[in-house]
Amino acid sequence: MRERIRQSLIATLKPKERPYDVRDSQLRGFVARVHPSGRISYLAVYGRGRSYAIAGADKLTADEARAEARKVLAKAALGQDPMAEKRERRSDTLGEFIKGEYAPWRRARSKWGGQTIGALQREFGDLYSKRLAEVTPWIVEKWRSAGLKAGRKAKTLNRHLDTLKSVLSKAVEWGYVPVNPLAKVRRLKVDRRGRVRYLEPDEETRLRTALVEREADLRQRRERFNAWRVARGHASFPDFPGDHLRPLVLLALNSGMRRGELLSLRWGDVDLSRRQVTIRGETAKSGQTRHIPLNSEACATLEAWRPADVATHRLVFPHSGENRDGKAMAQVNSSWRSLMKRSKIVAFRFHDLRHSFATKLVMAGVDLNTVRELLGHADFDMTLRYAHLAPQHKADAVEKLVRRAVG
């Protein structure tokens, strides 16, 4: 796209899924880049693959940026490397870069951006005073060794390391450092196919019983409370709408959806006539939209939970069961712990309901690729953790060798 870059044009530029450039029609090399977050930055592009980040459109007007671009392009024409000079002058620390550049971009890009920034502060706050190029593999290795010594899981440390590496990759992309100093740091080896925790038949029976009992207790509590209010001349509260935890758990057991996907689900994503639910890419971990068929129990559960005045924009599981048009629930940790105690189930997380869903499918003879599609795994390796739950397939395979030898 090539146009005269003016302030009036900048005001009309809209973000897209990918960054795109508007090249000035009069000054060759002067570029306005529009980022998916809506942020617009000015660049001076000189030579193949070389560019100089001037400033954001929130800091300079188009005319001011054009004047800076002229200076940069003039130096480049004389054989100088303006970006190399800028790197030598630059003294940005890790903390300054995260707070000033990475955090706004991340928050605009992801609904969990605030959590990511908080985790960076907790894990690497001690490194915030260091310049970007000074965040060396040795410093990170000391952090990792200390974590392992403290008993932290390799999987957790890998996740935080990946986040820090992505921060520095953005610093390279945006011209703050020439290379990522952690690019060659390898992740710790993790057994991705370790033991899978799923519900045994007797545990699932206890869980379902506990859900029914919990809902009955909550309903009786509401009835007693209303009776108390009426006896004192107060208006009673509406009838108990039902316990959110019961449909949440039953849907997880029958669909394999992640907790975040469940809590982000809206009634517009549920199609009971076609017996399917749509996980939108914006709420999926993989970023890809997928469709999950609903079995009879899942359909009946949603039908019973759906309010009479349902609207497509409403959350299926809002923050308050009293106000089904409320904001999304952040978590269900407290009610989940209470449920586990009532059902006498130990060492079982809400996420393990997803494992139970996959395990039952594999044990019923469903092929692993179908399981992968239903779970929304980006790669097949994640699904292979369930392969051992279908041992008969392997037994049948090796038995063929015997039959061939006999024949």
Summarize the structure.
This protein is 48% helix and 8% strand.
Would you write up a description of this structure?
By secondary structure, the chain is α+β, with helices and mostly antiparallel strands. It has 3 domains: 88 residues, Double Stranded RNA Binding Domain (2-Layer Sandwich), CATH 3.30.160; 80 residues; 145 residues, Orthogonal Bundle (hpI Integrase, Chain A), CATH 1.10.443. It has 16 helices and 8 strands. The strands form 2 sheets. It has a 5-stranded mixed β-sheet. A 3-stranded antiparallel β-sheet has the order 6-7-8, with no helix packed on it. A hairpin with a 5-residue loop joins strand 3 and strand 4. The longest helix is centred in the middle third of the chain and has 31 residues.
How far apart the termini lie comes to 70 Å
Strand content: 5-15%
Rounded to the nearest angstrom, the radius of gyration is 28 Å
Q: So how many helices?
A: 16
Order of helices and strands: EHEEEEHHHHHHHHHEEEHHHHHH
The order of strands across the largest sheet is 1-2-3-4-5
Largest sheet: 5 strands, mixed
Mean pLDDT: 86
Global structural class: alpha+beta
Q: What CATH architecture label of the largest domain applies?
A: Orthogonal Bundle
Helix percentage range: 40-55%
Shape field: globular
Q: How many domains, as an integer?
A: 3
Taking pLDDT < 50 over at least 5 consecutive residues as the criterion, the unreliable ranges are 321-325
